[in-house]
Amino acid sequence: MAGRTHGLKPDPTRGISPTRGFSPTRGFNSTSPAEKAVRYVLLLLVLLLTVGPFLWELSTSLKGPGEDIFTRSPSFLPHQPTLGNYAEVARTVPVWTYAANSLVVAVITVGGNVVGATLAGFALARLRFRGARLVLGLFLATLVLPGEVTIVSQYVTIRSLGLADTLLGVALPGAIGMLNVLLMRTAFRAVPGELDDAAIVDGATVRQRLLHIGLPNVRGMLSVIVIFAFIGAWDDFLWPLIVLTDPDKYTLTVGIQYLNGTFSANPRLIAAGTMIAFLPIVLVFAALQRFFFRGVEEGAIKG
Amino acid sequence: MTHRRWFAPWLLIAPALVWLLVFTVWPSVNTVILSFTNARPLGGGRFVGLENFHRALNDGQLAEALLNSVIYMLVCLPLLTLLPLLMALLVQKRLPGITFFRTAFYTPVVASAVVVALIWGWVLDDRGLVNGLAQRFALLSGPLPFLTDRWLLLLSAIGLTVWKGLGYYMVIYLSALGNVGRELHEAAAVDGAGSFRRFLHVTLPGVRNTMLLVSVLISVSALRVFSELYILSDGTGGPGGRDMSVVMLIQMYSRGFTGHLGYASALSLLLFVVTVGPLLLLLRLDRKAA
């Protein structure tokens, strides 16, 4: 079990292995050229459907003012490529301030989850104490509760803490996700008990057990939590929409929803603003996707 | 003997426990309390009995929102249970470049619903890509009002939710497919079963539990929809505010100085009641699987 989490070196051929733990018989595994061709055609078709709209938006954002974007025979490549739309959006709407605000919220959320979920997950998985089952039950019970149900009274709570209309108020409730605590507990439980027992016999403190035995073995799950805490915070819309009223404090999602109204006459500018919100998250994901798919393999994503 | 300090575990759990109590347990209790009051953002909070619930019974907009949710669920369920499974089968085979395809198919999941809705707002615009192409090839004589018609707007939002969810459920299926016995597939192939029959008799039974799990997740998320409808309708909820979801109503009533937190809380309780059914089913399935 531990061996799987040790191997964190990049290996693009190891995504989700459907044949893990089974030696594939070559004859069955090989694909006929015809089947291969059909599969690639289908893959490209799905690719067009899933990524096409993003590319269309990117293309629109790069089209110059002289280009007719409303034509019935649209061109998929900009004829007069320009970054002018991005500059124009940034002049009218403080997108970089929004981006900085989103980043602040995302960093607090990631930091809180890494620390909070690791500590609690370790204690629930590895330490024996009175009330552990009760606490675990409480954490589990929250999973039945969709976040939207408590969003009104959560806002009341944030307001009574004096955090309404602040970025801290946006970040705080999600800074320790209960699901993440449970995921970390699962990861720590998968660490071989003999390792821990040996450490206890050697007189290791809780701190040493966590830092030297626990943590090195749960890096896979931790990276999944980092990715999803970041994406979740960056993408969230409803909660910041409720908490924030001061336009200077808007996060990107709240800020760019007004693009439609502000630039309804010029979709190029809406597209540029949209891309500013989209590109960072896609780069983060592209850079970290191998950890994500490895996490899938370790069973982190069961839904 | 530092490791025997009895409070060490509690020290580690404390932050998460505080968060649980402050941001989940207390708000849950408070939602129930607020739903019996006329609380407003500034003051209020007098006990009004069942008034909010009476109001909900006669709220035409809420009835429309619930109807929208039912339609949302009915369309999303079959599409998002089946299409992602087919996609998972497509990307399961390790052909060259498959990692790229897997990652690309997951892109809509990673993007914010706001970003996705803005993009589709442009694609479905009166002068946008879909209407432009359809008119060019003479499929339509005039533009279809995807974003201004009560039913077309709802269908557009549903299409967006489906499109954004494909990759998410694909990954869940992908990790489930890894557990479907390869031996069974081979045995069936040796016995001369074609790929369609193998899909029907080996793959489908193998991912049956995952399909149940996925359909529960889809049902719950269909009831929780917000951003797609909100952005596509520019926050208005469509013509006459008829394209609202329950969450949109909750947001509407909790917003600004004129908001009605008591009524918003009553709606939240209602949302809880309708989502808890599928979720309890999920927990039962989870227990069976574990």
Describe the structure.
The complex is a heterodimer of chains A (303) and B (290). Chain A has 303 residues and is mainly alpha-helical. Chain A has 2 domains: 31-82, no CATH class; 89-297, MetI-like fold. Chain A is built from 16 helices and no strands. In chain A, helix 4 crosses helix 16 and helix 12 (219-235) packs antiparallel against helix 16. The longest helix of chain A is centred in the middle third of the chain and has 32 residues, at 95-126. The relative contact order of chain A is 0.15. Chain B is mainly alpha-helical and 290 residues long. Chain B has a single domain, classed as MetI-like (MetI-like fold), CATH 1.10.3720.10. Helix content of chain B is 72%, strand content 0%. Chain B has helices at 8-34, 51-57, 60-92, 98-110, 113-123, 129-136, 150-177, 182-190, 195-206, 208-223, 227-232, 246-254, 261-289. In chain B, helix 2 (51-57) packs across helix 13 (261-289) and helix 8 runs antiparallel to helix 9 (195-206). Chain B is globular. Chains A and B meet through helix 3, helix 5, helix 6, helix 7 and helix 11 of A and helix 1, helix 3, helix 4, helix 5 and helix 6 of B.
**Backbone shape of chain A:** globular
Query: Uncertain segments of chain A of ≥5 residues (pLDDT<50)?
Result: 1-28
The poorly predicted ranges of chain B are none
Q: Give me the CATH fold name of the largest domain in chain A.
A: MetI-like fold
Full CATH superfamily name of the largest domain in chain A: MetI-like
- Protein chains sharing the most extensive interface: A-B, 111 and 105 residues
Residue-averaged pLDDT of chain B: 87
Q: Write the element-wise H/E pattern of chain B from the N-terminal end onward.
A: HHHHHHHHHHHHH
Largest sheet of chain A: none
Terminal CA distance of chain A reads 22 Å
**Secondary structure: helix percent of chain B:** over 70%
Beta content of chain B comes to under 5%
Please identify which CATH superfamily of chain B we are dealing with. Answer: MetI-like
CATH class of the largest domain in chain A, please?
A: Mainly Alpha
First-to-last CA distance of chain B: 37 Å
Order of helices and strands of chain A: HHHHHHHHHHHHHHHH
Q: How many separate domains make up the residues of chain A?
A: 2
Q: Which structural category do the helix and sheet elements of chain A fall into?
A: mainly alpha
The first-level CATH class of chain B is given as Mainly Alpha
**Number of beta-strand segments of chain A:** 0
Assign the CATH topology of chain B. MetI-like fold
